[in-house]
Amino acid sequence: MFRYTDYIPLPPWSDGEPGSPYRNAKNPVGDRRRRIGQGIVSLSVLVNLYFLYATFTSWPAPLDNYQALNTHPILDTKALVAIKPANSQDNVIVTGLYTDAFATAVATLGHTLNVANSSAARLLYYLPDKVSERALCIATVSGWEPVRIERIAPPFRGVHRHFLDQYSKLHLWTLDQRGYQSVMYVDSDTIVRRNFDEVFRLPYTFAAVPDVYTDSQGYVTAFNAGVMFLRPDTELFHDMVSKIATAHYPAEQAEQAFLNHYFGAEVLRLPYAYNGNLAIKKRTPKLWTALQDEMRIMHLTMAKPFLQGDYAEVAMDQLERNAERVARKKPVFKEEIAEWVEAWLETRRTYASKLVKCNAL
């Protein structure tokens, strides 16, 4: 029955220990390969951990650890006196309306400009195929002069769908044909806190505020195209349009990426007070607090109380309730949302009769 009477099986716990009937044979090649494999796996884990860390952190910047050391005002009024005052007829403030959903925001922006007593003219760029008569009426109650513009289509695929019409902003550079020598462009999701007419006395051809991100990018040298000062030049406009399809830049960021390439080496970077991006508050609350007394323009980039869902229009009688919903979702911006609502309510009271007529359209 037992054919191999002298066979003694190797116990699993012996592992070739001295005294065992059998000992494991050494395999130096296999051991070396195993160690190499373990080393590669360990290195791969370390590399992946590094990239995960780099994704959620950034190289430290001074503004990340902002300290209120400098108490001097941004504007040197004594120096400004020495500069020849700008002719108000030469200056214009422009915003855009590319969808009905932003009509109440444009009206509110215009009212805050009136309160700030800006001396510049006001123009509203709009796309006639995308904006209704009613929305245009609402947007212009606070004094904007509507100007029809032709849409400049994106030259690439991959543009973020909220930015598909933003290349039309390049028409700003044609305003020399209307006799304007200086232009201040402000996005419709902004409100004006105080007069900024001093920018019209800048001797530069282009100026904007550095952008801010809440992720690892943080504070960057690239500028945000939501607030820009420029000297219009139709010849330059044609040059830009001829190059938007051949220049190399991230398609998703549309005209902002293109303008950063076009003016990146020459742009005058304005203080953050001229484009109070809500991302600053999320990134460095202390810096946001320090900007309050000097802020000229607040940019509601991360919380839009006048929109619902995915950039959908909100009825005027629902704006306050909608703003409350936005504030609950983004409580860090509760104060800024409340400030916009207050400005809207003032707008509604001031232009009540005009708004009634607009709603009847």
From TrEMBL:
Matches recorded under InterPro entries: Glyco_trans_8 (IPR002495), GNT1/Glycosyltrans_8 (IPR050587), Nucleotide-diphossugar_trans (IPR029044)
Keyword Transferase among record annotations: yes
Keyword GTP-binding: no
Keywords, sorted A to Z: Transferase
GO molecular function: glycosyltransferase activity
Gene3D superfamilies the UniProt entry points to: Spore Coat Polysaccharide Biosynthesis Protein SpsA, Chain A
Pfam family, one: Glyco_transf_8
Name by which UniProt lists this protein: Nucleotide-diphospho-sugar transferase
